[in-house]
Amino acid sequence: MASSAVEYARNNQQRFLNELKDLLRIPSVSTLEEHKPDIQKAADFVASELRRIGMENVEIIPTKGHPLIYADWLHASGKPTALCYAHYDVQPAEPLDEWHTPPFEPTERNNNIYARGAVDDKGQLWMEVKALESLMQSGGGKLPINVKVIFEGEEEVGGESIDAYIVKQKAKLKADFALVCDTELFAPNLPTLCVGLRGLVYTEIEAKGAMTDLHSGVYGGAAPNPFFALIEIISKLKDSKGKILIPGFYKGVKAPTKDELKAWKRLPFNEEKYRKAEVGSKVLTGELGYSVLYRTWARPTLEVHGMPGGFIAAGAKTVIPAKAAAKVSMRLVPNQDADDVFKKYAAYVKKLTPKGIETKITIHSKGPAAVVGTDNPYIKAATEALHDTFKKETVFIRSGGSIPIVTGFQDVLKIPSVMMGFGLPDDNLHAPNEKFHIPNFYHGIETICRFFEKLGEK
Amino acid sequence: MASSAVEYARNNQQRFLNELKDLLRIPSVSTLEEHKPDIQKAADFVASELRRIGMENVEIIPTKGHPLIYADWLHASGKPTALCYAHYDVQPAEPLDEWHTPPFEPTERNNNIYARGAVDDKGQLWMEVKALESLMQSGGGKLPINVKVIFEGEEEVGGESIDAYIVKQKAKLKADFALVCDTELFAPNLPTLCVGLRGLVYTEIEAKGAMTDLHSGVYGGAAPNPFFALIEIISKLKDSKGKILIPGFYKGVKAPTKDELKAWKRLPFNEEKYRKAEVGSKVLTGELGYSVLYRTWARPTLEVHGMPGGFIAAGAKTVIPAKAAAKVSMRLVPNQDADDVFKKYAAYVKKLTPKGIETKITIHSKGPAAVVGTDNPYIKAATEALHDTFKKETVFIRSGGSIPIVTGFQDVLKIPSVMMGFGLPDDNLHAPNEKFHIPNFYHGIETICRFFEKLGEK
After folding, report:
1. A272 within a domain of the structure (yes/no)
2. Both B193 and B216 in a single domain?
3. Domain that residue A359 falls in
4. pLDDT digits over A53-92, tens only?
5. Quick one: closest CA in B to A234, which residue?
6. Would you say the pTM of this structure is higher than 0.95?
7. In terms of Cα–Cα distance, which of B192, B234, B416 is closest to B330?
8. Are residues A407 and A321 in the same domain?
């Protein structure tokens, strides 16, 4: 039998979806300076809704970067306190010409909603807000447990402000567990909790050669070319088999337990289907001797994301550019130390820098990996709530991505995170045509209602 | 005593310069589709001036690419015929933020005129036009020799249309020699004729991995990254000492004669000054055992000009791009065959392409190196004219750049080219803040007047 909160959510599905569309129309791209007003607009949108549904002490908290949003409702005496986390910022939408419909005009097709941020993470943020509304409305203005909300606008650019905030505001944010809705189901209709995340060190190497751009005919053979320097450096950071060559890089790497590895083997995963339908490449790459799940969840990697500089328009320009850059990131696993990895990386890049070239290495974001235990009452209640929604046993997985705040909750607030996300593997997050499966949006709202009700009953 | 043509040129310097500024204001960038109307505007501007000064049969000749301009004056019976060549298209002006004044608003500073195309090649094209005007005006509507003019608008993108045109119109373009004004003085006030040019093969490698952009957290460790493929490939095209590793690449390379190498050693060239003032890098790069002039004039090279794809805006985006590309060119020397080099290069790139990646190689432009003999009457008359202007002996140099049409004049029309240019080594061609030293603009006009007068006297 559906709870009255679930009932309320079901009766209001279309309105909830329309509200989400309004939020998706705001291009709150956190990495691009020109979208700063949109970030503010998105924060205002979310904060007013929290106020409207009956949350208290709603604040938009200015930071050095983008604002945080706080709210609470703390009148469930003797009941546990949840800290609800999500982020309202999104990745850039480029390349725009690959979107079938514009990224900031949410469009429904095949029971999906297509838009930048649909699943990562505005759709999942809105699940939390709408679950709180459903609980509040069906509970006569009361929630079954105490709830604090902390939403950020910098997740896609490293989340520095929230990191600093939780260190300063430990007491204010004190809770028993965090609910983090920013992950995905392992497969459609398979209830999933994520219990491990990789960390991230995202850097940019800028290489300078000549003092000005030079004609490659006139100076080719004498002038240093910063692209060649970057190519020479990066070709030595990782071998063709995926092994990272930075001295000491693998120090501390902790392998998953045998039990975890066994459980991963039982997951419904078809490597050939994954290659064809998700990745769409001729072969999969990566280290020999590790499964795909092992490689993407529990092995560190190094990637190049873009190489700004020189001439990149259509056609030909015979230039030796004065400078060029490379965006290089590393994914970390337990127990690699992000600072230590960056130090070793930077030292190695400096060592590999050829004569005649100056390199400058900057860091865009940095956070270690995180692993959550499965033997706490919050994970247990979440598992039961998922079962009620999906009528299936929950699987425990990891994610190759990073949610740096989960590490912060663990290390600073000393609370476990329940990473309960409702995305799907083919949702194109960070890519053109990002989507959110609409039934999963509704399932998410219902599951959060049930999860909090279960904790309130105890 | 100055000839009356030189006299006329001196009396009209300011007007000539103002006209050049009008031409420089037209952004006739040949590689960018959006500038097609500007290309047409520049062609119209030049053609009307040729008509105005009394040239005959002036034509704007449509091509598959950008138009050619033809004109002639053929009434100097018994006298030689010159084919005057220059180009009215320019390189892109990017990066725009490094220009001190806007690239298409010509500005005078320190006796230089700053603008994209100032020296390469609109300023030098205008020298030819203004020399013809001066000769015509001072000669009572007659030129001392027969003159054909062929100007192109595709020099910066490979010059395919003029190549095809000279093959088709051998009779129409028949001449005794070509005058090509698109090179530079070896040093300020040092009269210079260029007698050798490197060739060029300019390519683009496009690499494809996954079918869509992927999140580097979720897929890093399994999805192929086309940037890594390009880095792996390009790192194996050239070693860190500048040696090109494409099998068979150096086949046919002809070294300069001992006499030429000796003459190069006598040129006023200070490697340290060149490094500091021209290149502005910590060290010079290139093959050991070859001088800078040898390396840039007579050794083949391979450069990367830009790597489009992925995320190149400020900040961080954790993407494994579905595709990436690299603009790679090779400079060729006598007697490398451009087709043969491209074939070997393309085959090697294919061989180096890692599993999981598809590469497609396209060619943007292609032309072999050229060497001109110094023992013909046209080079001799040019040398005398330069002596009259500069009161100094002419030096014979080569250039590392390419003027593919010189090879065409040699191979198709069977005529030598007099490469008489008035740029300076620090004129920033193809770079921000391109300039032309104004006295050199005037010297160029005067020298061409004297050159044609000398040929007319014989």
Report:
1. no
2. no
3. 199-249+297-367
4. 999 999 999 999 999 999 999 999 999 999 999 999 999 9
5. B231
6. no
7. B234
8. no
